[in-house]
Structure formats: C-alpha cells, structure tokens
Amino acid sequence: MRSPRSPRKSALRVTAAAASGIFAIALLTGCNGDDKDGKPGGIDIGDIPKMSIPPMPTMPSLDIPDLDLDSSGSPGATSTRPAGGATMPGQVESVDLKAGDCIDTSSSGQISKKSCSGPHDAQVAGVSTISDSLDPRSSAFENANDAACDQMGSVIIDRQDSPSDLTVTWYAPTPESWEDGDRTLQCLIVRRDKTELTEKLI
C-alpha cells in the first residue's frame, strides 16, 4: 500500500457524560441577637422549603465519523485530497511508476495508468528513494518528501503555459510497507482546481 501526501485522519469520539446538578443553599445568619420573632440568627430552618432534584438522564455514547483534514501525513485515512489536486484515496495499491506516466486513481485506491492525451488525475514528475534515516510517522519524513517532490515538480511546472494552475503531491510508503523495505517516493503533478489534466506535461 502507498500513502499520499496530506491525509489526516481525525477520529473524533465524543462521549456525553451523565449530567447531575448540585444545588447549595447558603444560610446567612446574623452576627448577634435574634430576629423580631425571637428566632436565633434571624432565620428559622423550618421555614426553608425542601427541594427535590430529579436525576438527569444518562446520555448515550456518540460515534462521530472520521474526518479528513489535510497536512498531517497520518496513515490510514479513508480518503484525502492532495494539496490543490485531484481526489486521491488515503491509501493506494503499489504500482511501478516512472517519470511521465499518467494515472487515474479510483475511490478504492486502485491506480491505473492512462494515456496522457486524454483526461487523467495526475502525471508522474519523478521517482526517488527515501532515506533509511527517516521515520514514516514523523514530520521530517513529510518535509523531506515535500522538498524532493517540489524540486522535481517545479522544473516541469515552470515550463507550462499556466504554471499557477498546477501543484505537486506524492505517494510514499505507509508505516507498514516501510517495515517491509518500501522506500519509493513517487512525485505527482496535479491541478490546483481539482479537475483532470488533459495533456502530457513532460
């Protein structure tokens, strides 16, 4: 499996606790002497009405669905949108890509190579090897991948007629595939407006 740039899984689970009310009644007493009726302290305890507080119902536990938030790099998101690009799933099947390949990615994470002359989700700017010293769960891992793909992608993007319409994203190993020896970084060019590319960029 491959993990793209910018998935963040925010699994929010909210448990509403049972509510209970506590009422405190402060009794003010005089400093000295009795009230006009001769009752010590000015207040007769028997004059205070008794209050009955009904118990509050217990609230059920609520499960809130996972939300996809960008810029985390956390693996396992169910869906994601790379920065400014076409919709990509949170994890995709590993595919051997090379610079210039054009691809589509299904909602289930299946990558298919496409002709660059027709509509496609992304084009591969380049492929490189990630350093063994990086931890795929760290921000340094994401920063290094950003830098490598920005360098590869900017050379291609700057040559286009409308470079501001394009941006770079990437596929990198998940923590699980990293443990299996996967070190491949695949840099992709996508459109910022999230529409498909329609021509070959390389």
Structure, described:
The protein is α+β, with helices and mostly antiparallel strands and 202 residues long. It has a domain at 2-9 and 68-191. The chain is 12% helix and 22% strand. The protein is built from 2 helices and 10 strands. The chain has a 6-stranded antiparallel sheet with strand order 1-9-10-8-6-7. The protein has a two-stranded antiparallel ribbon with strand order 2-5. The chain is elongated, with a radius of gyration of 31 Å.
Low-confidence regions: 6-31, 60-86
Computed Rg = 31 Å
Please indicate the percent range of residues in DSSP E strands (runs of 2 or more): 15-25%
Number of helices: 2
For the largest beta sheet, what order do the strands appear in spatially?
A: 1-9-10-8-6-7
How far from one another are the termini? Answer: 26 Å
How would you sum up the global shape? elongated
Summed up:
The protein has a domain of 132 residues. The protein contains 2 helices and 10 strands, in the order ββββββββαβαβ.
Task: Give the tags.
202 residues, two-stranded antiparallel ribbon, alpha+beta, 10 strands
Could you give the topology of this structure?
Elements: E1 2-4, E2 9-10, E3 13-15, E4 61-63, E5 67-68, E6 102-105, E7 111-114, E8 122-129, H1 139-157, E9 166-173, H2 175-179, E10 184-191
Antiparallel strand pairs: 1-9, 2-5, 3-4, 6-7, 6-8, 8-10, 9-10
